[in-house]
Write a structure and sequence with these properties.
alpha+beta, Beta-Lactamase, Alpha-Beta Plaits, 4 domains, 8-stranded mixed beta barrel, 5-stranded antiparallel beta sheet, 28 helices, 27 strands, 45% helix, rod-shaped, binds ligand C2E, binds magnesium ion
C-alpha cells in the first residue's frame, strides 16, 4: 500500500493533553486531524485543515461522536471495540461525508495518543481516487475497443510473453476455449505455429521480428484452414522505451478471393468465359520470352467468323451470342495441351499454339476451319458458319506481339479478300517482291492496252476415247522486257490490285468471240473461262456475262465459268442467287481446283454446279500416293452422288490416266494430251479432226 504514517506525527508528544496546547499541536500538523476522547468516543479538538476538508466549523465538529465522522464498517467496528480493549492503531483507506454531501476518499490513521485520547489524521486522496477511476474507465474502454475491432490483437512483452489478446485473435487462429483458459504462453505460441502452412518460415520470421525490437513490419500468414492473415507488428512503447510488441492480424481471405475474382474478370470474356485479349497478350508475351530462351516456336492464329453480322441481323443478338459460345466451345475442343484460345473481339478469336512448325500449324488451322464449319442452329433452322484464319509464326514472322498480331491480321484479311473460309500463313514479302509486284502491275496494265495479252486453249478430252469435248481458255502474256510471264505469277498480283476485273472482262470477251467463231464455222466447242472471286463479286457480273453472250451470239451452254471454292463459301446467299441467275442464262458452271479450298457438301448441294475439276495437286501423286488416291476417290463418289461431272486436271502420265479411268473419271485435261495452245494451232490440230 501507499506511504506510511506521516513522519510529522512523531513530534506529537504522547502526553499532550487536549485543550489549548493540544489545539496548537493539531494546528501544527500538515494534515487534517482531530482528537477523540476514548471514554465518550467524541471529538474534543479539531484542526483547521480538517474543518476545511469536511466543510464544517470547528464548533460543529467538536463534541460530535467519532462514529458520525468516520462511519465505514471498519471504523464502526473500531469504535465499538474501544470499550472492550486497549485501543490499537488503525491505518487504511476510508470514506467520509463532507458537509456538502460529497464523498471524500481518504487515507486514515487512528492511533492512541495517551490513555484516553486518540489522534485521527487524514490524507485526502480524492484526486488519486479520481485518477484511478479514470484509468479504470479507460482500461474498460480500451478493452471494449480491442474486442470490437475486426482485427485480432496480441500483445507480448520483450521476452515474447503474452500480455493480452482479444477474442478475435483466438477466433482467427481457431483456438479452443480450453487453450485460452489454460493461459499457457507456450501452448498458444505452439498452436499458432502449427496453424500455418509453413511453420518453419513462420518461426524464422517471428525470430527476426522479435530480435529487431524497433521494427515495424507486415507480412502474410497462410493458414492450414485456407485463411490468409495479414500480420502487422509494431513495437510497444512504454515511458519512452520499447516494452514489447503489438501484433494485429487481419483476415484477408475474402478480400483476396474478391481480388482474384476481379483479376479473373479483367482477364476473361464475359460471354464465352474464354480468356480475353489482355490475357492472350500476356500469354503471347510469355511465349515469346520463352521462345527467345528455348528456341521453341509458336503460332498465333487469328480466327475471324465470316458474315457473323448476318447472323446477328437475321437471328437476333441472343442467337448471335449462342453462336459465339458454341464457336468458343468448338475451338476449345481443338486445343492441344499448352495451347490457348481467347476471344479477342466481337466475332474474332485467337489461338496460341505452342511447339508448332509451318506444317503442323496448317493441320491445326484445318481442324479449326472444320470445327467452326460444323452445322449450327437447331433442326428447324440449321446453318453453316465459316471463318477466316490468319497465321503468324514466332520466331519466323516476328517476336513481338505487335508484329505477330499485325501479320496474323493481314493474313486473315487476305483470306477474306480471297473469298473467306480458309486460312493463310503470313507470307513475308521481301522488298524485292514488293517492287516486282509493282512492276508487274504496271506492265500488266500496259499489256492490256497494248494488246500484248492473248489466250491459249487447253483441250478437255474424254478419258477413254481422247475425244475433245471442250477447251479451257488460259491467259498468256509476253512482255518485251519481262519475257513470258506465267499467270500463276501475275494473276495473284492482279487480284490484289483489283486489276483482275479488267483482265477478266477482256478474257471473257476474247473467249466468247473465239467460241462464237468456232460455233459459226460449224465446229462448236464449249469454252471454259476462269473467273476470279473479285470479278464474280462485281454487282454487274451476271448482266455483263449476259450482254457479252448476247453480243457474241454464242449459245450460252457453250460457255462454262470456272469458279473457285472461295466464291461459294463467301456470302453464300448472294453467291447462290448469282449462280442461279447464271444457270438460268444457260451457262455451265464448274468448280476449279476442287479440293484445295474449303467447301462442304452442304454448300455443293445448294449450288447449281455442273462440274468439279480435280486439282492438279491431287492428280500428280496418282496412282501411288495413298492420300491422293483417297481424295480423288472421295471427290468422284461425291460428284456422282450429287449428279455432277468430274474432270481431272494436270494429267501428265499414262498411269494417271489409267487409274482415273479405272476409278470412273470421265474427262481430263493435261499435258498427256496437250498443253494450252493458241487458237490457230487448236483449230488445226483438234477441231478439223473433230467429227
Ligand atoms: P487453272 O485454272 O487451274 O489452270 C490450269 C493450269 O494448269 C494452267 O496453268 C495450265 O497450263 C496448267 N496445266 C494444265 N495441264 C497441266 C499438266 O498436265 N501439268 C502441269 N504441270 N500443268 C498443267 P496456267 O495457264 O499457268 O494458269 C495458272 C492459273 O492461273 C490457272 O489455274 C488459273 O487459276 C489462273 N488463270 C489462267 N488464266 C486465267 C484467266 O484468264 N483468268 C483468271 N482469273 N485466272 C486465270
Ligand atoms: Mg481453270
Ligand atoms: Mg485448276
Amino acid at each position: 500500500m501507499s506511504a506510511g504514517q506521516p513522519r510529522v506525527l512523531a513530534i506529537v508528544p504522547r502526553t499532550a493533553p487536549p485543550g489549548a496546547e493540544g489545539q496548537a499541536l493539531l494546528e501544527a500538523l500538515p494534515l487534517p486531524a482531530w482528537l477523540v476522547e476514548t471514554a465518550a468516543c467524541s471529538v474534543v479538538a479539531v484542526n483547521a485543515a480538517a474543518c476545511e476538508l469536511l466543510g464544517h466549523a470547528a464548533d460543529a465538529l467538536r463534541g460530535s461522536a467519532a462514529a458520525t465522522l468516520l462511519a465505514t464498517p471498519e471504523d464502526l467496528a473500531y469504535w465499538d471495540a474501544l470499550d472492550a480493549a486497549a485501543p490499537q492503531n488503525l491505518h487504511s483507506h476510508a470514506t467520509l461525508c463532507a458537509a456538502d454531501g460529497r464523498m471524500l476518499h481518504v487515507e486514515r490513521w487512528i492511533r492512541p495518543l495517551q490513555p484516553g485520547a486518540l489522534l485521527v489524521t487524514l490524507r485526502d486522496r480524492s484526486v488519486e481516487q479520481r485518477a484511478g477511476d479514470e484509468i479504470e474507465t479507460m482500461l474498460g474502454e480500451l478493452r471494449a475497443t480491442l474486442e470490437a475491432t475486426a482485427d485480432g490483437i496480441l500483445v507480448t512483452d520483450l521476452a515474447g510473453r503474452i500480455r493480452s489478446f482479444n477474442h478475435r485473435f483466438a477466433e482467427l487462429f481457431g483456438m479452443p476455449g480450453s487453450l485460452l483458459e489454460a493461459a499457457d504462453d507456450g501452448r498458444i505460441h505452439d498452436w499458432m505455429r502449427r496453424s500455418v502452412v509453413d511453420p518453419e518460415g513462420y518461426q524464422q520470421r517471428l525470430s527476426v521480428i522479435e530480435d529487431a525490437v524497433l521494427l515495424s513490419c507486415s507480412d502474410r500468414l497462410e493458414l492450414l484452414s485456407g485463411a490468409v492473415l495479414e500480420r502487422v507488428s509494431r513495437p510497444l512503447w512504454q515511458r519512452g522505451r520499447t516494452a514489447g510488441r503489438v501484433y494485429s492480424f487481419r483476415d484477408l481471405t475474402r478480400q483476396l478471393a474478391a481480388d482474384q475474382r476481379i483479376a479473373e474478370l479483367t482477364h476473361t470474356d464475359a460471354l464465352t468465359g474464354l480468356p480475353n485479349r489482355r490475357r492472350l497478350a500476356e500469354r503471347v508475351l510469355e511465349a515469346a520470352t520463352c521462345s527467345r530462351r528455348t528456341g521453341d516456336g509458336f503460332a498465333l492464329l487469328l480466327v475471324d467468323l465470316d458474315r457473323f453480322r448476318q447472323i446477328n441481323d437475321s437471328l437476333g443478338h441472343g442467337a448471335g451470342d449462342e453462336v459465339l459460345r458454341s464457336v468458343a466451345r468448338r475451338l476449345q475442343d481443338c486445343l492441344r495441351s499448352g495451347d490457348e484460345v481467347a476471344r479477342v473481339g466481337g466475332d474474332q478469336f485467337a489461338m496460341l499454339a505452342r511447339g508448332v512448325d509451318p506444317e503442323t500449324v496448317q493441320t491445326l488451322a484445318r481442324r479449326l476451319l472444320n470445327a467452326v464449319g460444323q452445322v449450327c442452329g437447331d433442326e428447324d433452322a440449321p446453318f453453316t458458319l465459316t471463318c477466316s484464319i490468319g497465321v503468324a509464326l514466332c520466331p519466323q514472322h516476328g517476336r513481338s506481339i505487335d508484329e505477330l498480331v499485325r501479320h496474323a491480321e493481314a493474313a486473315m484479311r487476305a483470306v477474306k479478300g480471297a473469298g473467306r473460309a480458309n486460312f493463310r500463313l503470313h507470307q513475308p514479302r521481301v522488298q524485292s517482291d514488293l517492287r516486282r509486284a509493282m512492276r508487274l502491275d504496271h506492265a500488266m496494265r500496259q499489256a492490256l492496252v497494248s494488246g500484248r495479252l492473248r489466250l491459249n486453249y487447253q483441250p478437255q478430252v474424254v478419258l477413254e476415247s481422247g475425244r475433245v469435248i471442250g477447251a479451257e481458255a488460259l491467259i498468256r502474256w509476253r512482255d518485251p522486257e519481262l519475257g513470258e510471264v506465267s499467270p500463276a505469277e501475275f494473276i495473284p498480283v492482279a487480284e490484289e490490285t483489283g486489276f483482275i476485273v479488267a483482265i477478266g472482262d477482256w478474257v471473257l470477251s476474247q473467249a466468247l468471240r473465239q467460241a462464237a467463231l468456232w460455233h459459226e464455222r460449224g465446229t462448236p466447242l464449249p469454252i471454259a473461262v476462269n473467273v476470279s472471286a473479285l470479278q464474280f463479286r462485281q454487282p454487274q457480273f451476271v448482266d455483263r456475262v449476259a450482254s457479252m453472250l448476247a453480243v457474241s451470239g454464242l449459245p450460252p451452254h457453250l460457255l462454262e465459268l470456272e469458279l473457285t471454292e472461295s466464291i461459294l463459301v463467301r456470302d453464300a446467299d448472294e453467291a447462290l442467287s448469282r449462280l442461279q441467275a447464271l444457270s438460268q442464262l444457260g451457262v455451265q458452271l464448274s468448280i476449279d481446283d476442287f479440293g484445295t479450298g474449303y467447301s462442304s457438301l452442304a454448300y455443293l448441294k445448294r449450288f447449281p454446279i455442273d462440274k468439279l475439276k480435280i486439282d492438279r495437286s491431287f492428280v500428280s501423286g496418282l496412282p501411288d500416293d495413298d492420300s491422293d488416291v483417297g481424295i480423288v476417290r472421295a471427290i468422284l463418289q461425291m460428284a456422282q452422288a450429287l449428279g455432277m461431272k468430274v474432270i481431272a486436271e494436270g494429267v501428265e502420265t499414262e498411269l494417271q490416266r489409267a487409274f482415273l479411268k479405272s476409278e470412273g473419271c470421265a474427262f481430263f485435261q493435261g499435258y498427256l494430251f496437250s498443253p494450252a495452245i493458241d487458237a490457230i494451232s487448236f483449230e488445226h490440230r483438234l477441231l478439223r479432226a473433230a467429227p
